[in-house]
Amino acid sequence: SSRFRARRPSRLGRRTRTRPAAPALHPLFLNSLLPKVPPLPDVRIRTLGDFDNAYTAPLHGFADKDDYYRRSAAKPYLRDIAVPTLLLNARNDPFLPARFLPTANDVSPQVCLLQPEQGGHAAFVSGGGRGHLRWMPQTVLRFFELASDGD
């Protein structure tokens, strides 16, 4: 289906994704962030919630971590999805515990929930060893194949 046709990257995009150019741009990117990042407050941070409360929320204009979590959550909008969508969440994600993952009651019929036991926050590797990252791309491609069969 034409919905999934990849767009040709811009000239800048092609240049920044090449191996020789990318390392040279990293220091420029990091230096551009420094003026935007305030120093960490003098508080004891023991959890991700503490960090979000002391740093992430104020940096991005939220009152506190609860305001940040509430206003940036996608879950309230999952029932409104109108196109085939794969929602992939590992049940062992350290940042999003399984008890907070959406259920079939939280999503529209267009959403395919896939919640494997393993995968961490962004790993989803298969097989053994470094560089063996086929599981997620293969799963996503299979979803696109099935979704486009319905067109």
TrEMBL record:
Give GO MF terms, alphabetically.
monoacylglycerol lipase activity; short-chain carboxylesterase activity
Taxonomically, the superkingdom here is: Bacteria
Protein family membership: Belongs to the AB hydrolase superfamily. AB hydrolase 4 family.
Protein name (Swiss-Prot/TrEMBL):
Hydrolase, alpha/beta domain protein
Q: From which source organism is this entry? A: Neisseria elongata subsp. glycolytica ATCC 29315
Classification from the root reads: Bacteria, Pseudomonadati, Pseudomonadota, Betaproteobacteria, Neisseriales
